[in-house]
Amino acid sequence: MAMLIIIDQPPYGGWTGREALDMAFSLAAFDQPVSLLFIGAGVNWLRTGQNTSGIEQKSVEKNLAAAPVFGIEDILADRISCERYGIAPPELADSVVLTDANAELLAQYSQAAFAG
């Protein structure tokens, strides 16, 4: 069974989410099955066409685009969180799967770690 890394932090303004992504990449690089779940403000990581010039940071889109290279199994977005933040499916990266973040989903993983 895979490990689930849950990112509930916004993509900019702190390092917690990026550190969780780095942890997922490290696990996957050592052939540990990993999936990512974005919930709450974390779903904002998954918006396409992010313009970060105003905050002088690199867009997290490029970081996420590397997930398949590292062997990340799934990139999941909580459906309710996407609705709350006004993110429609066409605004999500192609590899993102909408899901319901609930006990049933968590039961599919041997371990889960929260970024927040």
Q: Total strand count, please?
A: 5
Structural class: alpha/beta
Shape: globular
Unreliable segments of 5+ consecutive residues: none
- Portion in strands: 15-25%
Total number of helical segments? 5
What does this structure look like?
The structure is a single chain. The protein is an alpha/beta fold and 116 residues long. The protein has one domain: Hypothetical Protein Ychn, Chain: A, CATH 3.40.1260.10. Helix content is 29%, strand content 20%. The protein is built from 5 helices and 5 strands; from the N terminus they run E-H-E-H-H-E-H-E-H-E. The protein has helices spanning 16-29, 60-65, 67-70, 79-84, 103-106, and strands at 3-7, 34-38, 74-78, 96-99, 111-114. A 5-stranded parallel beta sheet has the order 4-3-2-1-5. The radius of gyration is 13 Å and the shape is globular. The two termini are 23 Å apart. The mean pLDDT is 86.
